[in-house]
Write a structure and sequence with these properties.
Elements (H helix, E strand, L loop, with lengths): L5 E5 L4 H12 L3 E5 L7 H8 L2 E3 L13 E4 L8 H9 L3 E3 H10 L2 E7 L4 H15 L9 E8 L4 E4 L9 E6 L4 E3 L2 E4 L8 E4 L13 H12 L7 E5 L3 H7 L5 E6 L6 E9 L2 E8 L2 E8 L4 H16 L4 H9 L9 E6 L2 E6 L4 H14 L5 E5 L12 H8 L4 E5 L15 H10 L4 E4 L2 H8 L8 E5 L7 H16 L1
Parallel strand pairs: 1-2, 1-4, 2-3, 4-5, 6-9, 6-12, 7-9, 12-13, 13-14, 14-15, 19-23, 20-21, 20-23, 21-22
Antiparallel strand pairs: 7-8, 10-11, 15-16, 16-17, 18-19
Length: 483
């Protein structure tokens, strides 16, 4: 696409799609997009980019006729815009294909993959490269992240190609399918020169039938890495070990195992700051400090450090970058502090992610009463495949509140999660727990119960009915009445 085109994105409010819209606009294309509903942070990103957003989907959104349509992976047959595209033969493609064709050619592809931790780890890796580039310009990164990296204030950056220099492009590699016409994972389009594999668990129950299918997808990604490449793989998962077992490239394990190439030792947490010693091949590599809580974030940082060091980034740059890392929007993000109540936003999509978030908050806010407020919204959480695991994760909080599952009618009745079953199991353990129809019901119920010192973790991968704005307002009103 060397000439300027009108490109329309269906499903533009997805994190990767909104980022791609910005990348294409920076190339000089005229961009429009549509979605069913918009919410922060990506709605804010689109507004800042000056990209026209149409809501809801409608045939009229395709007027004037675009030169090309990019179809998001959440879009299915029956969508009115997609049907118009097919009927009128407007050229269309997928996000992953455009990334490969327009942005990865001539660049070094570095991919972060795994069931958990992709967004945070990619953001850490991008910031490490950015800090390194201050003294070594060849490390200046282009990147695409599935969230807004706070050090950059954006989810993407594309630097112009420079002749004779193989510039790095850092990508979050998503295992979700590519489009309605391409059911393979998006990351198979990215052909990594080097990669990170964080975790492998069953997820995306709407497209993967079982764990074996998930592992097959990751094995295919590993099989794309050339012999000259490198793979940084978590050492604490048998599933990861299976997926990397037949790699043709060098594999470096990271974690807490004594024989791992990259080993964390003496991990300590004081409030929201984590510190540890990182060993490389049994030798001290660096003393690392990260202003984030949680063992999982120390592991994410270690993976990013390992990949960067193997590509030639200095230990000094890695230490400086991690010490100044500012996290990602919607990852343990403090959204408000109202009358002594701290409200945390976390992009929870899986029981394991919920468990690690609550563990991190326990360490960061010791002795404080912890509330878990969950919207079962992801395609996995809306199903009953992890009902018991969800109970075990939520049991780490002092109080749990669940909303009814998002768009329950889209899930077959025999596959559907029943939040009341989760609540009953928690109550049987003596843990106060309740379920409400929606965000408004939750806000009305818990705001009068909250007191100074409480920490409220709001767990959702969507807008959650505006609860992030409604709850602080209700707390303030309730505290005023009590005063």
């Amino acid at each position: 696409m060397h000439s300027s085109k009108h490109i329309h994105l269906i499903g533009v409010c997805g994190t990767a799609m909104a980022s791609l819209a910005g990348m294409l606009k920076a190339q000089g294309h005229r961009i429009s997009g549509s979605d069913a509903a918009a919410y922060p942070p990506m709605s804010d990103v689109l507004e800042e980019l000056g990209i026209t957003l149409h809501q809801p989907y409608a045939e009229a959104n395709l007027e004037p006729r675009p030169d090309l349509v990019i179809v998001g992976n959440a879009i299915s047959r029956g969508n009115v815009e997609l049907e118009r595209v097919l009927d009128t033969r407007i050229p269309f493609t997928s996000m992953a294909a455009v990334l490969h064709d327009e942005f990865l050619a001539g660049r070094e592809s570095l991919v972060v993959a795994g069931t958990h931790g992709k967004t945070t780890t990619t953001s850490m890796l991008a910031w490490i490269y950015e800090v390194a580039s201050r003294t070594q310009p060849q490390f200046a990164p282009s990147f695409l992240i599935g969230g807004v990296a706070e050090n950059f204030g954006t989810s993407f950056r594309v630097r112009p190609l420079v002749g004779g220099v193989l510039q790095p492009f850092l990508l979050e590699g998503d295992e979700y399918d590519t489009a309605f016409f391409d059911k393979g994972p998006k990351f198979l389009h990215y052909f990594p020169d080097a990669a990170i594999l964080t975790h492998v668990e069953f997820d995306h129950a709407d497209i993967y039938v079982d764990l074996a299918a998930v592992k097959t997808a990751f094995k295919r990604l590993v099989n794309l890495i050339p012999r000259r490449g490198r793979l940084i793989a978590f050492d604490g998962s048998e599933n990861v070990s299976e997926c990397v077992g037949r790699a043709f490239c060098a594999v470096e394990r990271y974690g807490f195992q004594v024989d791992s190439h990259w080993r964390l030792t003496d991990l300590r947490q004081e409030g929201v700051v984590s510190t540890w010693t990182l060993l490389r091949g049994g030798e001290r590599f660096a003393e690392l400090q990260l202003p984030m809580a949680g063992e999982h974030n120390a592991l994410n940082a270690t993976a990013a450090a390992a990949l960067a060091a193997g590509q030639g980034v200095s230990a000094a740059a890695i230490v400086e970058a991690l010490a100044s890392f500012r996290s990602v929007k919607r990852r343990l993000e403090v959204r408000a502090e109202v009358d002594g109540v701290t409200i945390i936003d976390d992009f929870a999509h899986h029981p394991t992610a919920i468990r690690e978030t609550l563990r991190a908050l326990r360490g960061a806010y010791p002795g404080r009463r912890l509330w878990a407020v969950l919207e079962p919204r992801s395609n996995t959480l809306r199903r009953n495949v992890f009902e018991q695991e969800l109970v075990e994760s939520l049991a780490l909080a002092d109080r749990s509140v669940l909303a009814a599952i998002f768009k329950s009618e889209a899930i077959p009745a025999d596959e559907r999660l029943h939040p009341e079953n989760v609540v009953a199991a928690l109550q049987a353990r003596g843990m106060p727990s309740a379920v409400y129809a929606d965000a408004d019901g939750i806000v009305a119920a818990i705001a009068p119960e909250l007191r100074a010192g409480d920490v409220v973790a709001i767990l959702s991968n969507g807008g959650f009915g505006g609860i992030y704005e409604k709850l602080p307002q209700a707390i303030h009103r309730s505290m005023a009445v009590r005063a």
